[in-house]
Structures are given as structure tokens and as C-alpha cells.
Amino acid sequence: MALQAHIRELSDKHSRLDAKIQKEMRNPSVDDIEITALKRQKLKLKEELEMLKAKH
Are 10 and 50 in contact (CB under 8 A)? Predict the structure, then answer.
């Protein structure tokens, strides 16, 4: 997979996670543990994106 395509795919995943986090936070019965796990996944993706963009 080309680097640009991989970066684009990770960026899309990051955006979807952000949308899911926002949706879950609006839920009246929000699960803090799930929100924390989603935020960790989002941060991991962001760090990977930054590393790949620095190589590019």
C-alpha cells in the first residue's frame, strides 16, 4: 500500500473514531471506560499519522 493511501486510511479511521466518541458522549448513559478506550485508540492513530507524515 502506498504511503499516501495508508495515511489517508488512518486519517479516515481517526475521523470515524472522533465521530463515535462525540456520539457516545451525547448518550445519557455514557460508558466512561469505553470513551477512554476510544480516546486511546484515537491518540494511537494520531501518533502513527504524525510519524508517517514526518517520514513523507
Answer: no
* Sequence-distant (≥ 6) Cβ neighbours of residue 56 within 8 angstroms: 3, 4, 7
* Cβ contacts of 16 within 8 Å, gap of 6 or more: none
**Cβ atoms 5, 40 nearer than 8 A:** no
Our separate counts of H helices and E strands in the chain read 2, 0
pLDDT digits (tens, 9 = 90+) for 16-28: 999 999 999 998 8
32-55 vs 3-26: helix crossing angle, rounded to 10: 160
